[in-house]
Here is the input.
Amino acid sequence: MTQAALQYAASNSDRFLEELKALIRIPSISGISDYHPDVRRAAEWLAAHINTIGFSNAQVVESIALPLVYAERIIDPSKPTVLVYGHFDVQPVDPVSLWHTPPFEPTLKGDSLYARGAVDDKGPTLAIIKALESLIATDGLNVNIKILLEGEEESGSESISHYVEHNVTALACDYILILDTGMVAKDVPTITHSLRGMTYVEITANGAKGDLHSGGYGGIAPNPIQALAWVLADLKGRDGFINLPGLYEMLRPLSSEERAILDRQSQQRGEALMAAAGIDSFPGEQQYSAMERMTSRPTFEVHGIIGGFIGEGTKTVIPAEAKAKVSLRLAPGQDSHKVFHLLKARVAELAPEAVKMDVVWLNGGEPLLLPLDAAVLKVAAAAYGAEFPQNPVEYVRGGGSIPVAALFDSKLKAPCVMLGFGLSDDNVHAPNEKFHLPYYNAAIRTCIRFFSQLGE
Ligand code: BES
Ligand code: MN
Ligand code: MN
Here is the structure.
């Protein structure tokens, strides 16, 4: 059975690649509203495509914001049900000038397919669908499948969160499969069992009612950019400690075994991580290992600051307003809304006199920590490990976030399996994103084996 599906995938691999290219050509950027019609087109493309591979009920599902795609194929209620998740939206492409090829024209160079969304997450998502096609076409699908895809993962996951909350019974499943994470190194099969959460906000600082002459008012007027700089510096010191009372108290402590694993992984990966980023040290909390800081500690990052004058020449002005976009990554135990309220209160407390500061919630999600003893992980490790027999399967905590994953865990209460096919030099979210194309086929084969084995 499995063999026939693997054979089908091999015989159809050229077409599978063309289909991935077609999906990639749709510029489904969820973060920019001008592209929302394209996010919808990607949803329509996927629903129609899923109906061509043997599903009959795939549909675009309207929710509170951008649409979702849902399909199911129930072959036998006594068989296990797998809920498959992926996202078809992508990050913005700016700065476009740094791309070597057009971001939405998939370009093959050697083994790499360059394009926005190639690895995050169109390639891996379509790989699951191509595995299902291969199994259905060869009469080998022996598990029930529910497919739930979203077009808003990169910008809040509002719609899918709402949908999951209201469709707990319809989404009932035994296992959840997600291909949206990375590998620790080339050809090392990597199962991610933890993700961080997030609280993403915009901080606005307002001083006078309009811009002021810096001579006429200098020395007596409030400066919102300066005030924002003070507050941001107060919130995180040079030692990397986040000065937000209550934040660390929520953190689930690590056992000495867990910490030892992170220490070992830091030894193994530290150099490569530095080299890939072009840095020669890791600033931050020196008393914790790099991997602990990257996966199991909260972060505070300023993503951008805007305000005042930055044009050609000089302009002596005291700006009336400044803004910053800031996020905290949250580690297991921390709650995104509680952190938001702590931050809002703390900013109000730190704001200097005469500058009004407001903190607005933009995006967020909860962290996730999965037990490593779920039986399904053994099945997944065997299916995945078979692709990379030269290396043992690594189990890692991820530093990134997939907001709906924690919701699946808390509402559907089924074990989640996250198999990674991204490499650290894939330029995820950056110019020249790529997908290591052999992993498209490896992901398809892994999923074929995984589904087959679960249905045995
Ligand atoms: N695929 C990533 C998440 C990821 C990356 C998990 C690497 C584990 C390892 C996902 O598409 C992503 O980028 N998520 C955003 C979510 C955020 C906007 C709420 C992230 O992590 O920044
Ligand atoms: Mn992703
Ligand atoms: Mn992403």
Summary: The chain has two domains: 2-195+367-455, 197-257+292-365. The chain has a mean pLDDT of 97. The first strand starts at residue 59 and ends at 61.
